[in-house]
Amino acid sequence: IKKIAVLTSGGDAPGMNAAIRAVVRACTYYRIDCIGVYRGYEGLIEGDFKDMSARDVSNTINKGGTILKSARSQEFRTEEGREKAYKQLKDAGIGALVVIGGDGTFTGAMKLIEEFNFPVVGIPGTIDNDIYGTDNTIGYDTALNTVVEVIDKIRDTASSHNRLFFIEVMGRDAGFIALNTGIGAGAEEILIPEKDLGIDKLEESLDASREKGKSSSIVVVSEGDKIGKNVFELADYIKEKYPFYDIRVSVLGHMQRGGSPSCYDRVLASRLGVAAVEALLDRSTGVMVGVTNNQVTTVGLNKAIKMNHDINRELLKVAEITSV
Ligand code: F6P
C-alpha cells in the first residue's frame, strides 16, 4: 500500500480531528501518501480529495467537529454511487481507506469491501458509544463531560425554584450517555431504551422523593427511551398527575456533539489512528480498531455494528442506590 485515504462520516464527534491527525502522521511516519476525503462518502463519490501532509493537521488535536467535514450520503447507498466512489479511489491511486464514524459508516465500508474487495479499516467515532468491540467510541467521553456540566447548571436553577426537570440527552437507540451522566450528575431517575422502567416506576420514584422531602429533581431521559412518545409528552403526563410540580423540559440537542475533545478522547483517537494505519499495513481489512481493557484490539466490522453491548447492571444498581 502506497496511498491511504481517510474520511469522517455520519454524526461528527469530538476527537475526530485527533484521529485524522494520527492517521495522517502515521502515514508520514511509515512513508505512505495520505489523502483526506471531504464530506464522507459524498466526497468520495465526487472525488473531493486533498493531499494531506503532517503539517496540514497542525493545531487540530484540540478542535471539535471534523476538519474533513461529514455527511450522511444517500447516493452511497446505491450501487451506482458506490461504483463512482470505487472509480475515484482507483483513479487517485488510493490503495486503502480509513473510515471514522459509527454504524452507518461501517455498513458503507462493508459494501466497498464486499463489492470491490477494497481494503478498509474502521475507527469508532460517535458520541453514542453504540459500537461493539471497543470500551469507548471517540467523542463519548467528551459528550459525557459536556452533559454533566450542563446538568450541573440546570441543577442550580432547579433547586432555586424547587422544580422538576426532564432533561433529554442524545444517544439515538442507546442509553449510555443517559445512564452515565445520570449517575454523574446525580439524577433522581434515568430513563433509557435498554430498560423499560415503565411509567409506574417513574411515578413511584417521584412519590418517594416527595415523601423524602426532596424539593427539586432531575430526570435524565435518553432520546431513545420509549416510556413516552417524547420528553414533552412525558412531562405533560406527569404534570397532569402531579399538578403541584413545577415542571420544565430541557432538550440538550447538538451542543452535546461540540466542543474541544477531552484528554481521554484525544489519546484514544491518537491510538486508534495509528492502529488503523498499522492494521492496513499488516494487510487487515474489514475490521474496526478499538481499545478494550486498555489494549488496542480489532473486531470485524460486521460485529462492530451489532451493538450487543449489554447495559451494565451494576451501573443500574448504583443509579438506584445513590438516588435514595
Ligand atoms: O449519532 C450521533 C447523534 O448525535 C445521535 O445521538 C442523534 O440521535 C443523531 O446523531 C442526530 O443526528 P442529526 O445530527 O442528523 O440530527
TrEMBL record:
At the top level, the lineage of the source is: Bacteria
The Gene Ontology biological process annotation of the record reads: canonical glycolysis; fructose 1,6-bisphosphate metabolic process; fructose 6-phosphate metabolic process
Q: Which residues form the active site?
A: D128 (proton acceptor)
Residues that bind ADP: R21, A22, V23, V24, R25, R155, G186, A187, E188, K212, K214, S215, S216
Q: Which residues bind Mg(2+)?
A: D103
Q: What's the Enzyme Commission number for this chain?
A: 2.7.1.11
Q: In which pathway does it act?
A: Carbohydrate degradation; glycolysis; D-glyceraldehyde 3-phosphate and glycerone phosphate from D-glucose: step 3/4
> What HAMAP family does this protein's entry cite?
Phosphofructokinase_I_B1
- The name of this protein is ATP-dependent 6-phosphofructokinase
Source organism per entry reads Lutibacter oricola
What would be the name of the gene that encodes this protein? pfkA
